[in-house]
Amino acid sequence: MVAIGSPDRFSLAQNYPNPFNPTTTIVYGIPNNGPVTLKVYDNLGREVRTLVNEPKTAGFYTLTFSAPDLSSGVYFYKLESGNFVTVKRMILMK
User: Are strands 59-66 and 2-4 parallel, antiparallel or unpaired?
Assistant: First the structure.
């Protein structure tokens, strides 16, 4: 994970590539220091992976999500920090 610069608001970019197999990149930004969680859920709302669960300093972050053990389908990734919550959709095609 790499932090570059400091955003003025929260952001969660669409993963790329999308659809993906078996890895994809997720970029997010947080404007304030604080606890951050980024989790992946299946289409039934079950948590399948925790990608981030720790305090972060303000900045932009990039991570790679690898899913060789997951089935093809639609997944959702949710970013939470403070009062901010947002969700994006991604597709795993094997």
Answer: antiparallel
Q: For residue range 15-55, what is the model confidence (pLDDT) as tens digits?
A: 999 999 999 999 999 999 999 999 999 999 999 999 999 99
Domain span at residue 50? 2-92
CATH number at residue 8: 2.60.40.3080
Q: Which one, of 4, 93, 18, 90, lies nearest residue 51 by Cα?
A: 90
Beta bridge partners of 46: none
The pLDDT value given to residue 50: 98
**Pairing of β 23-30 and β 59-66:** antiparallel
pTM summary value = 0.92
Q: Edge-to-edge, what's the strand order for the sheet holding 23-30?
A: 2-4, 59-66, 23-30, 11-12
**Rounded to an integer, what distance in angstroms lies between the CA atom of residue 63 and that of residue 77?**
12
Alpha carbons 1 and 65: distance in angstroms, whole number? 11
